[in-house]
């Protein structure tokens, strides 16, 4: 069924009765996802959030297990993973598509039970973009769309004063069968006109972002001088990786004593020098040049070689947030130019 | 000296092998600020930009170069040629700090002083653009001394005055003109800077709140920190080869695992560890932070770091009558003591 | 399904969770600034030669190590050089204490496809540990393989690992042992010189053979060069790579070489594969 929501606040208020709800909120520093009761939602002028919603499925810190030493050996206990359902409302198409990449990493082979649990219990209600929402958006250049549905459970399009909601997955459809929403007080079936208008807006958004190039086609060159040149000004922080919706590198550290403690997983990044530093002192990527190369290659080659899709989803956060303006779109364009010069 | 002459002078020196590299600003792909240009190629110097959009404290690349040298990954031959660096007033103070702390000798610097009449706040400029531009294509952004404009059909349409996009956090600036230089871009700024006693008016209101209120404020701010370490990495004063607050991110000089693994902080991004990181770093910067504001500009989640660091700077000033980086000849304040030092804080 | 529920422990198989294992024996093999100890622990799971296990030291962390023993043996064995905090903690253990283990990880050596072939093992120093599993496996399945040559060396005789076993194997007819030390030593009866040089001395036949080499990167570089000179094709040459690891299951991202994860797609790689990855040789 295609539904229409006249009053978003009323709808989200009902959702919050049965689920933990997260909605974008404007702070002086920018837009961030925050827990919400639903009724205070205000999305006027909403572009995209500063940090991606990946933290709701893959938190920055997570206890994996606890251990305790005893007479009979070490006891290892699974940590309880949250079971309560959560709804993320307002995630953009790029951030939802990012989840299909994380699904590949965490759910295939040796399924990660922590991610799996959260993924099953999360409903992603994506919000269609009116076009490019930030100066650095480039989702269409990586084969995605501002109205795309990859990774989404429900797709919301702003039509008139309210929103048209389309079911994308079973999980999304099931949301409307939940006790909180079954009554249909905050939603109704959409009219044919409303549904058609949603489709028209989605198509207009795609046209607005018609891509100038296909970044999947660009061939990176391992020994290019571009890497040294672009990495020279990199300050080696973790902004690009930590804001990125698809970066999933992590470390596991022990916290506690020999007798009792826990293992904690935290986000890590290939941009930190010690990321791949071995105990012997050998580091396969000792300089920023190699680490920048690793980042670009991982996003545009290694991941697609392994999983068949680009890891970069074109949200542009790394581009706008880099304090020294390292721009992956520009780096890719340099390779495109180099190739056309030599071919 | 006019900018063209400066570019020519630098190109000349570079071609003759008198400079190792030139560090300045150039246009990038972000229309709201300039990007660092680090080059040893004279041809690229034509790109040098001296507009108010050049906000980065480029001295951080001097610090960076020295750290890399200490780690032994630079050609020893290159160590002794000077590096040219473009510095605004506050940046020249940062250089003084590096000179005071013997991080780099004066002979290895060729200082291009840039008198500063204010810089753009890229976040504010971008927000105003987002709110007021008709067509948000970033290619239509024009920013100059007059303000923020949108190019509509080849015409400049004003969206904001310069005052609206200026970085107002620098209202306390004590050094609009660089304190020392080898060559100066244009004319010095004529206006008198803020007097020493008035320089902390921006933090005074906040510091009047009770300790509990301030702790509550900072706890909330620190809880949003994602430990990306951009604040630390972009700071020129952070020159330690092994940062005790971020040992897990950088390759140490010492291969001994025991030394490497004595972490002061956990890697977890939680209120306790985050607060420990920020408070420790703020104290490490006591008497060394020059209020350039880069930490706050770089912070992706907008933590008001300048307020934190200037709160500490005010205490240093109030207690010891000392401002960071004003004089390269003086010993850094935190490395010395005198019997006359204020002991007010110990009285009960 | 999506209702608020009480928090429950994760039920599904958890690939990060170690199991408890008793340390049966710990012996010092090599002393000095980079000591090597040999550990035997209870066998917790089946594995193939060349696979690795994550050893977990409570309160310290984990380290991925090649399982040095063959699965045909009763216990799991590791040869460990003290390098970082986890290996230091391992060195500090006593027999009877417990540690965590999870595995097996990695691809292991393709021993099935090597049946009938001559096996040439070339190791240096601590590099004995992965090839030792092949040596034991071949000895335990002797009739399935051709010649077995073990070319092994270290800086000095005191740096040779597993020296008790090596002494016993000297007289064995099941394999040919070719030991070497880098520098002259009174009383040394074997070859004096570097391992790659010893390889040339031994001059194993390339036809119908596979060569496996592990050891310091510089040694591997010259061993491979000499193997090629002896007529070995890249597809006949195998080595094991190592990288810093945390998850061991190809998720945390850090051990990659190109799109390959050393923990999952390796650690065993043929030289033919490695030639395609510039990152592997950097």
Quick overview of this protein structure:
Chain A is of the alpha+beta class and 343 residues long. Chain A has helices at residues 8-18, 93-107, 113-120, 170-175, 179-182, 192-208, 226-231, 239-243, 288-307, 317-321, 328-342; strands at residues 2-5, 20-27, 30-36, 61-70, 73-78, 80-81, 86-91, 122-127, 154-159, 162-167, 188-189, 250-256, 260-267.
How would you describe this protein?
The complex is a heterotrimer of chains A (343), B (348) and C (282). With 343 residues, chain A is of the alpha+beta class. In chain A, 33% of the residues lie in helices and 23% in strands. Chain A has 11 helices and 13 strands. Chain A has helices at 8-18, 93-107, 113-120, 170-175, 179-182, 192-208, 226-231, 239-243, 288-307, 317-321, 328-342, and strands at 2-5, 20-27, 30-36, 61-70, 73-78, 80-81, 86-91, 122-127, 154-159, 162-167, 188-189, 250-256, 260-267. The model of chain A has no long low-confidence stretch (mean pLDDT 93). By secondary structure, chain B is α/β, with parallel strands linked by helices. In chain B, the strands form 2 sheets. A 5-stranded mixed beta sheet of chain B has the order 2-1-3-4-8, with helices on both faces. In chain B, strands 5-6-7 form a 3-stranded antiparallel beta sheet. Chain C is α/β, with parallel strands linked by helices. Chain C has helices at 85-91, 128-140, 163-170, 195-202, 217-229, 271-274, 278-281, and strands spanning 8-9, 19-30, 36-42, 52-57, 61-66, 75-81, 98-105, 118-124, 148-154, 176-181, 191-192, 209-214, 237-240, 256-257, 260-261, 268-270. In chain C, α4 packs parallel to α5 (217-229). β6 of chain A pairs antiparallel with β1 of chain C, so a sheet runs across the interface.
Quickly list its features.
B: 348 residues; alpha/beta; 2 domains; 12 helices; 8 strands; globular; C: 282 residues; Elongation Factor Tu (Ef-tu), domain 3; Rossmann fold; 7-stranded mixed sheet; 7 helices; disordered N terminus
Write the SSE topology.
The complex is a heterotrimer of chains A (343), B (348) and C (282).
Chain A (H helix, E strand, L loop, with lengths): L1 E4 L2 H11 L1 E8 L2 E7 L24 E10 L2 E6 L1 E2 L4 E6 L1 H15 L5 H8 L1 E6 L26 E6 L2 E6 L2 H6 L3 H4 L5 E2 L2 H17 L17 H6 L7 H5 L6 E7 L3 E8 L20 H20 L9 H5 L6 H15 L1
Parallel strand pairs in A: 2-7, 7-8, 8-9
Antiparallel strand pairs in A: 1-10, 1-11, 2-3, 4-5, 4-13, 9-10, 12-13
Chain B lengths: L2 H13 L5 E6 L8 E5 L19 H12 L12 E5 L1 H12 L8 E5 L8 H11 L8 E4 L2 E6 L2 E7 H4 L17 E2 L16 H7 L3 H13 L6 H5 L22 H4 L10 H14 L9 H5 L6 H16 L28
Helix pairs in contact in B: 6-12, 7-10
Chain C lengths: L7 E2 L9 E12 L5 E7 L9 E6 L3 E6 L8 E7 L3 H7 L6 E8 L12 E7 L3 H13 L7 E7 L8 H8 L5 E6 L9 E2 L2 H8 L6 E6 L2 H13 L7 E4 L15 E2 L2 E2 L6 E3 H4 L3 H4 L1
Parallel strand pairs in C: 8-9, 8-12, 9-10, 10-11, 12-13
Antiparallel strand pairs in C: 2-3, 2-7, 3-6, 4-5, 4-7, 13-16, 14-15
């Amino acid at each position: 069924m295609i539904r229409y929501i006249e009053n978003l606040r009323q709808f989200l208020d009902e959702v919050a009765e049965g689920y933990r709800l997260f909605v974008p909120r404007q702070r002086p520093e920018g837009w961030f996802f925050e827990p919400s009761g639903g009724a205070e939602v205000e999305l006027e002028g909403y572009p995209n959030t500063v940090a991606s919603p990946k933290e709701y499925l893959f938190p920055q810190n997570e206890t994996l297990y606890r251990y305790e030493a005893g007479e009979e050996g070490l006891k290892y206990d699974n940590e309880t993973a949250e079971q309560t359902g959560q709804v993320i409302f307002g995630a953009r198409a790029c951030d939802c598509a990012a989840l299909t990449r994380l699904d590949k990493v965490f759910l295939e082979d040796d399924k990660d039970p922590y991610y799996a649990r959260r993924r099953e219990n999360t409903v992603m209600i994506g919000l269609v973009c009116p076009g490019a929402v930030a100066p650095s958006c480039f989702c269409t250049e990586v084969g995605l769309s501002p109205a795309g549905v990859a990774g989404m459970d429900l797709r919301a399009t702003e039509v008139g004063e309210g929103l048209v909601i389309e079911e994308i997955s079973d999980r999304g459809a099931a949301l409307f069968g939940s006790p909180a929403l079954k009554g249909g007080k905050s939603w109704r079936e959409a009219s044919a006109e409303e549904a058609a208008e949603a489709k028209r807006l989605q198509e207009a958004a795609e046209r607005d972002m018609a891509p100038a190039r296909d970044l999947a086609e660009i061939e990176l060159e391992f020994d290019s001088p571009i890497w040294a040149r672009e990495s020279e000004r990199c300050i080696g922080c973790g902004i690009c990786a930590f804001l990125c919706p698809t970066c999933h590198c992590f470390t596991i550290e022990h916290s506690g004593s020999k007798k009792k403690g826990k293992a904690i997983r935290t986000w890590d990044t290939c941009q930190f020098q010690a990321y791949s530093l071995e105990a012997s002192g050998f580091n396969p990527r000792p300089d920023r040049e190699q680490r920048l190369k690793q980042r670009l290659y991982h996003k545009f080659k290694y991941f697609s070689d392994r999983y068949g899709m680009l890891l970069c989803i074109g949200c542009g956060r790394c581009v706008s947030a880099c304090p020294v303006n390292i721009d992956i779109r520009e780096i890719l364009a340099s390779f495109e130019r180099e190739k056309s010069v030599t071919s | 000296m006019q900018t063209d002459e400066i570019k020519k002078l630098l190109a000349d020196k570079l071609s003759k092998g008198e400079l190792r590299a030139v560090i300045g600003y150039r246009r990038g792909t972000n229309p709201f600020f300039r990007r660092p240009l680090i080059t040893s190629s004279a041809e690229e110097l034509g790109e040098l930009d001296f507009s108010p959009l050049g906000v980065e404290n480029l001295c951080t690349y001097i610090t960076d170069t020295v750290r890399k040298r200490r780690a032994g990954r630079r050609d020893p031959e290159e160590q002794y040629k000077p590096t040219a660096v473009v510095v605004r007033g506050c940046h020249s103070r940062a250089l003084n700090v590096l000179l005071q702390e013997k991080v780099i000798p004066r002979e290895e610097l060729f200082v291009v002083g840039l008198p500063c009449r204010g810089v753009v706040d890229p976040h504010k400029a971008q927000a105003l653009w987002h709110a007021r531009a008709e067509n948000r294509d970033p290619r239509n952004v024009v920013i100059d001394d007059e303000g923020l404009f949108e190019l509509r059909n080849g015409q400049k349409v004003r969206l904001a005055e310069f005052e609206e996009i200026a970085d107002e956090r620098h209202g306390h600036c004590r050094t609009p003109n660089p304190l020392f230089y080898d060559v100066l871009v244009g004319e010095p700024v004529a206006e008198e800077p803020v007097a020493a006693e008035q320089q902390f008016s921006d933090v005074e209101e906040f510091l009047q709140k009770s300790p509990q209120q301030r702790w509550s404020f900072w706890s909330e701010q620190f809880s949003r920190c994602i430990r990306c370490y951009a604040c630390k990495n972009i700071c020129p004063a952070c020159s330690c080869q092994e940062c005790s607050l971020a040992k897990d991110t950088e390759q140490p000089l010492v291969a001994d695992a025991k030394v490497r693994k004595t972490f002061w902080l956990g890697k977890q991004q939680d209120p306790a560890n985050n607060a420990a990181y920020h408070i420790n770093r703020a104290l490490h910067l006591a008497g060394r932070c020059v209020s350039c504001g880069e930490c706050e500009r770089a912070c992706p989640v907008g933590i008001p770091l300048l307020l934190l660091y200037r709160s500490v700077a005010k205490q240093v000033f109030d207690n010891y009558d000392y401002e960071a980086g004003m004089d390269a000849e003086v010993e850094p304040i935190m490395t010395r003591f005198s019997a006359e030092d204020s002991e007010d804080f110990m009285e009960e | 399904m999506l209702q608020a529920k009480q928090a429950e422990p994760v039920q599904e198989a958890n690939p990060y969770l170690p199991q408890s294992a008793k340390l049966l024996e710990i012996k010092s093999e090599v002393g000095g600034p980079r000591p090597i100890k040999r550990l035997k622990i209870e066998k917790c799971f089946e594995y193939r030669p060349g696979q690795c296990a994550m050893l977990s030291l409570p309160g310290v962390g984990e380290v991925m190590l090649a399982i040095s023993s063959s699965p045909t043996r009763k216990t799991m064995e590791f040869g460990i050089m003290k390098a970082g905090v986890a290996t230091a903690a391992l060195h500090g253990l006593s027999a009877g204490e417990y540690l965590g283990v999870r595995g097996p990880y990695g691809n292991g050596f393709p021993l099935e496809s090597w049946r009938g072939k001559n096996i040439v093992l070339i190791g240096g120093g601590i590099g004995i540990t992965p090839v030792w599993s092949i040596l034991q496996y071949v000895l335990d399945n002797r009739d399935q393989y051709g010649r077995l040559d073990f070319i092994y060396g270290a800086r000095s005789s005191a740096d040779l690992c597993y020296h008790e076993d090596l002494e016993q194997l000297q007289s064995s007819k099941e394999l040919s042992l070719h030991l070497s030390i880098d520098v002259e030593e009174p009383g040394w009866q074997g070859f004096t010189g570097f391992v790659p040089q010893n390889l040339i001395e031994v001059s194993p036949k390339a036809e119908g053979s596979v060569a496996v080499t592990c050891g310091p990167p510089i040694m591997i570089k010259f061993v491979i060069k000499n193997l090629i000179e002896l007529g070995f094709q890249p597809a006949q040459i195998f080595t094991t790579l190592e990288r810093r690891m945390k998850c061991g299951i190809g998720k945390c991202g850090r051990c990659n070489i190109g799109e390959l994860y050393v923990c999952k797609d390796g650690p065993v790689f043929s030289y033919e594969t490695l030639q395609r990855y510039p990152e592997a040789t950097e």
